[in-house]
Amino acid sequence: MRRYGKNTDEDDIRSRPNRKGNRPRTNIRPKHEEAVEGMVLTVDRGRLTCLVDDTVVMAMKARELGRKAAVVGDRVAIVGDLSGQKDTLARIVRIAPRTSVLRRTADDDDPFERVVVANADQLAIVTALADPEPRPRLIDRCLVAAFDGGLTPLLVLTKSDLAQPDKLLELYGHLDIPHVVTSREELENGSAVDRVREELDGKITAFVGHSGVGKTTLVNALVPEDRRRVTGHVNAVTGRGRHTTTSALALPLAGDAGWVIDTPGLRSFGLHHVDPSRVILAFPDLVPGTEGCPRACSHDEPDCALDEWVAEGHADPARLYSLRRLLATRERTEGD
Q: pTM for the whole thing?
């Protein structure tokens, strides 16, 4: 039986015919040195709308990326037809490392995490003060996801003409989270939009919130040239809003002042993927007190060193309470 090495030069070796007529498989992948950088604006059924310089390009994921998926906010390398003309399709061949990630699971017992937005600087949590009633547990979950993913949180409280914000702001006062309070009248005359825009200047901000809180209305006011002007209303029976945004969409603010990413209205926000050791990093005044904690301490157990450290006066006890309230939110349902 004849044996051949990898570099044989015999001319009597017969090649197996390729019945499909395509090229044989190879482990050598193209480098795509000619690829240009773009940003993913939205994803819809396998088609990704990307911005390349000032041109909007439709693209699909290249096969060599395997199961790795690109999401809104990703910086990607694109090859192919970049003209942006109708019926053209480019290919995404690389996804750049992400600076931040907003992730969620369907439920707390769901092991499959979903990346919602990549590379955002800030997470704007939009909550109505009434109609529908605020859901503090959902706010807590969004805060945990922001701290875990490396995003700076921002509270945007809407419909202050229907209820006062004092009680809700007091609940989050010790977290030192910036906030903006708006009313319907202020949205109509533009004063609220100006205050919100000041918090967004120069940043990529993802907007989240459950349906009916006015999130998409606010986004449309921030980016008036956006064509998605159909907003929902609150169901009088369930108290919940109707979904009006079905996929995340990145929109540029006027004057290159930043980006707004509108996301679908939330029904739930699972935190199965969250590592408590990353949440503590959002409380830098408490981090030194964790040096005496036992290994793999959840910071919400009897042996946690934070109790004694805070009792000695090194930090505000209210800050420790806020941390533990956020860490415990995985054990609660969002409607509590």
A: 0.79
